Amino acid sequence: MDGSDESLAETFWAVTRRLRHQTKRALAPWEISPGQARALGVLMRHGALRPGALAEHLRIAPRSATEVIDGLQERGLVERRPDPADRRATLVAPTAEGERVGAAIRQARATEAERFFGALPPEDRAELTRILRRLRED
């Protein structure tokens, strides 16, 4: 099959798989899953969140968010603490080590993304960004 027989969806999924594999390679030094890296990134961008709010940001079930939080907490990257606004509730926040690892991961992912998309000229990158943002909104 020479690519011309490949559907748009097949091409998109092939590119997605390639990007996912690159992301896993980029995360390997920290022995962190892509889901954990995403959660850590959300917490770094938004600050301490309740587990349910983190689940919403990640678009995953609350039970799945608990598993992600547990894994990050075991590695010392996040901590659970009482919510000062409601002592019955819990907040999840990155630790100092979580901030350090999160910043290193963000840099590694940016480097990988630059390598991945760097083959495209700037105008194609801008067009691809526009198209993907539009698809994300629908």
UniProtKB/TrEMBL annotation:
Highest taxon listed in the record's lineage: Bacteria
One Pfam family recorded for the sequence: MarR_2
Signal peptide feature range: none
InterPro entries, A to Z: HTH_MarR-typ, MarR/SlyA-like, WH-like_DNA-bd_sf, WH_DNA-bd_sf
Residues in HTH marR-type domain copies: 5-137
Matching PANTHER family: HTH-TYPE TRANSCRIPTIONAL REPRESSOR YETL, TRANSCRIPTIONAL REGULATOR, MARR FAMILY
UniProt name for this protein: MarR family transcriptional regulator
Native organism: Micromonospora chalcea
